[in-house]
Amino acid sequence: MVESITPFPPAVLLLSRLMILIALNIVLGSIGSLYLKLTSQSFHLLPFLMHWLALLLFIGGLLAYLMFRLGLFAGMIVSVLAWGGWISMKEWFFTGNLSKNWVFGMEAILMLVGSLLLILAFRRLALKQVEVEGKLG
Q1: Which of 7, 48, 54, 118 has the lowest tally of Cβ within 10 angstroms?
Q2: 12-50 burial code (b ≥16 CB/10 A, e <16)
Q3: Rounded to whole angstroms, how far apart are CA atoms 27 and 66?
């Protein structure tokens, strides 16, 4: 595998692959959503973007943060459980009598928490690199 011959730790490679995947999803999903908005009369762009972007950022951020804190296996397990929990909660959101504003607010919170977790994971990665460079120098 490529992880065994690179000078970078496997966690860095996994995080960089995760960031590339998230960036591609955001860019291509936004392009597709804008195309739908331009071609369809009844398409609501912001709720549609929030539905998939909130979950993408939250699960990706949770995985990245826990991967550096507890390891890859724990990060994967917790992320899959969070995804399953969101699917079950989504049924409750849309079949119950919750207002659309409450659902939008919950998705906004998920986006903010996911973005914060991604920032904290990168911060931890940067601090580890500074420690390694300090020990080498």
Answers
A1: 7
A2: bebbeebeeebeeeeeeeeeebeeeeeeeeeeeeeeebb
A3: 25
Q: Which residues of 88-115 are buried (b: 16+ CB within 10 A; e: fewer)?
A: eeeeeeeeeeeeeeebeebbeebbebbe
Tokens 């507890």 sit on residue: 70
For the chain, give every domain's residue range. Answer: 2-136
71 to 45, 60, 67: CA distances (angstroms): 37, 14, 4
User: How far, in Å, CA of 24 to CA of 32, rounded?
Assistant: 12
Instruction: Write down the pLDDT at residue 58.
Output: 93
